UniProtKB/TrEMBL annotation:
GO terms for molecular function: DNA binding; zinc ion binding. This is Replication protein A OB domain-containing protein. Belongs to the replication factor A protein 1 family. It comes from Effrenium voratum. InterPro entries: NA-bd_OB-fold (IPR012340), REPA_OB_2 (IPR031657). Residues 87-186 form the Replication protein A OB domain.
Length: 230
């Protein structure tokens, strides 16, 4: 039994922590996102990068000997740390890579349920996110994020996405939200969200966007008032 969390401290440092067996069973319900904790009696090991979207070179591991306590909120610790990059810059990144994005949801598909060849049940939802670079990108949400009520995606809400996995297929780029990432709808406390919202409502919603999730040999600009190109 194991579950993992991403920790942020008052200096802005981030690190992944994994709790195993007795520690996982004892503390899973306790460790609520957005609350503050003290954690003792863990060990440090090199980070397993394929399981983490964080940049830290190390990670923490806790077993039944750990001591984890919820403490009062600390105003000096932010809710999330983002290194936001413009969607336009995604076209120049080496792939595969991880990126933080803050933009407006311009369209959202209905969730789709399917099974893998191994018989595992999965659910996904595709959304298109645009920002003030004048570009938009297709991002696939999985699991609980995909199952959110469709009303959460209506009305062009601003969304902050941490740890979007960028991939390329046939010369076009798209993103996938891994379980380890974070998604925050309407993050009004973020300066990046305030900037994107101002762009959107001051004319961005009438702008023709360059859609980077389509091949350069196909249509790459679309009208927000029409269905996304397929």
């Amino acid at each position: 039994m194991v579950f993992s969390v991403e920790l942020l401290d008052r200096e802005g440092g981030e690190i992944r922590a994994s709790l195993f067996n007795e520690a996982a069973e004892q503390h899973y319900d306790l460790m609520q996102c957005g609350r503050c904790f003290t954690l003792c009696n863990g060990i440090v090991r090199p980070a397993q990068k394929k399981y983490s979207v964080l940049k830290h070179g190390y990670e923490l591991v806790f077993d039944g000997r750990c001591q984890i306590h919820m403490v009062d909120d600390d105003a000096d610790i932010g809710a999330v740390r983002l290194a936001v990059q413009k969607i336009a810059s995604v076209t120049q990144m080496a792939v595969p890579s991880s990126v933080d994005i803050c933009g407006v949801i311009v369209s959202a598909e209905h969730p789709q349920e399917f099974q893998t060849k191994e018989g595992k049940a999965l659910v996904k939802r595709e959304i298109t996110v645009a920002d003030d670079s004048g570009h938009s990108v297709l991002i696939t949400l999985w699991g609980d994020r995909a199952r959110l009520d469709s009303r959460e995606f209506a009305g062009s809400p601003v969304v902050a996405l941490k740890g979007v996995q960028v991939k390329e297929w046939m010369s076009c780029r798209s993103g996938s939200m891994a379980e380890a990432g974070s998604m925050i709808l309407n993050p009004t406390f973020l300066p990046e969200a305030q900037r994107v919202a101002a762009w959107w409502y001051k004319g961005g919603n009438q702008q023709r966007l360059t859609y980077i999730s389509h091949s350069s040999s196909q249509l790459v600009v679309f009208d927000l008032h029409k269905e996304r190109p397929r």
